[in-house]
Design goal:
By secondary structure, this protein is of the alpha+beta class. It has three helices and five strands; from the N terminus they run H-H-E-E-E-E-E-H. The chain is 33% helix and 15% strand. The longest helix has 21 residues, at 126-146.
């Protein structure tokens, strides 16, 4: 069955989404080392975040990433924007098994309104950027292994 929203997605945007889908499904777990800053719990491994994934994919695929909130001011999040129609690609959706998701940029689409762009100043740390580099390298290696 052809999904209704597919009629709003350009071939170029769909190809980018499919590429991200392949990358995310093939990407190995990334070890960022033990937590020393209470991101999770001291001694546990630092979790890979949506912020790291969005930046890593942006770096490797030349896409724009956005920071902000999902649904409410309490749920910070990062996602990508497609080049043709500015659809949202959420490569690492909050609290979901599966993904990525492609959210159609349409004023009548309630899902699109769940993503609110806003500056997140606490992401601007040397530690965070070091972690982004590790995730970005894992994404680069995955792209090379997939030959895409």
């Amino acid at each position: 069955m052809k999904v209704y929203s597919l009629g709003f997605v350009s071939e170029e945007d769909l190809l980018i989404f499919k590429k991200i889908e392949r990358i995310m499904n093939a990407m190995p777990d990334v070890d960022l080392g033990p937590d020393t800053d209470l991101v999770a719990k001291v001694g546990e491994k630092i979790p890979v975040s949506c912020h790291m994934i969005a930046r890593g994919l942006s770096c490797n695929l030349g896409l724009e990433y956005k920071d902000g909130y999902f649904y409410d001011m309490g749920w910070n999040h990062s996602w990508l924007v497609t080049p043709v129609s500015e659809h949202i690609i959420d490569p690492y959706p909050w609290g979901a098994l599966g993904g990525p998701l492609l959210i159609v940029n349409d004023r009548f689409n309630p899902s699109f309104r769940l993503y609110r762009e806003e500056f997140l100043p606490y992401l601007n740390t040397d530690t965070f950027y070091s972690q982004v580099e590790i995730v970005s390298e894992a994404i680069k290696n995955t792209i090379q292994e997939l030959k895409i």
